[in-house]
Amino acid sequence: MTADDFGLCPEVDAGVLDLLEAGVVTAVAVLVNPPFGGVSGPTAGWGSLTERFDGWGLHVNLSLGRPAAPVAQVPALVDEAGQLHGQVDRLVRPEVIDQVRVELAAQVDAFRALTGRLPAHLTSHKHLGEGHPALFEAFLDLAGRLGCPVRTRSDLARQRCRERRLPTPDHFRGDVCPGGYWTEARLADLVEGLAPGVTEVMCHPGRPMAARAGVWYAAEREIERRAWLAWAAGPGRALVERWRGRATPATGREGSTLVGFSVLQGA
């Protein structure tokens, strides 16, 4: 269960922490490029967070905010205002892809400076990591150097990971849509609808917030947060309680368990 966009804003941070405290979330995808990455909400900072939970991963971002690398090193990745433009057709030009690699490395450095550790997994904001084969190869090169699992949404992407011997879940569930993707109705049969193997379930929780530049998925985050908290207290209660206790595998109906990305490391 991965919560995306930690570091985006105080409302998102608080929503992610709500699900983390409830035992719903087993992985968190963190934005680290400026102005993101600061820990907001009721925490004592990254030291406290990393002591309590080890599922922090890097949410690679090429489309929002400023680059982690100096602009002079990645001029083709930004617009006239120095903001990441996220235009795939420009990012994949042969003369630009090396700048993408520079930015990815800079985001890893920023993640390590914030958390004191390397990412436990890699995901990408707006799934740009899978937006083009050239971007995906740069993304996988980074994962290979770090030795960590990656998110994949398609069978083709998973096949490429297998070819490169990189760990990735077998399936993926989650999306964004007006009105909120994860609702109580959609969560009611989540476990029964899972295919055999490891499935990454992506969510975007948050406290009430208004839309802002580059972020239209706003009010929907509170809908997701409430739905997941209701799931944790109802259909998913046994899974959550066992995951939080870590005494035994968090087995639910039909043999499902809650796991983190670390389960893939020995796969």
UniProtKB/TrEMBL annotation:
Its cofactor is Mg(2+). Pfam families: YdjC (PF04794). InterPro entries: Glyco_hydro/deAcase_b/a-brl, YdjC-like. Keywords: Carbohydrate metabolism, Hydrolase, Magnesium, Metal-binding, Transferase. Coiled coil: none annotated. GO terms for biological process: carbohydrate metabolic process. It comes from the Bacteria. GO terms for molecular function: deacetylase activity; hydrolase activity; metal ion binding; transferase activity. This is Cellobiose phosphotransferase system YdjC-like protein. It comes from Candidatus Ozemobacter sibiricus.
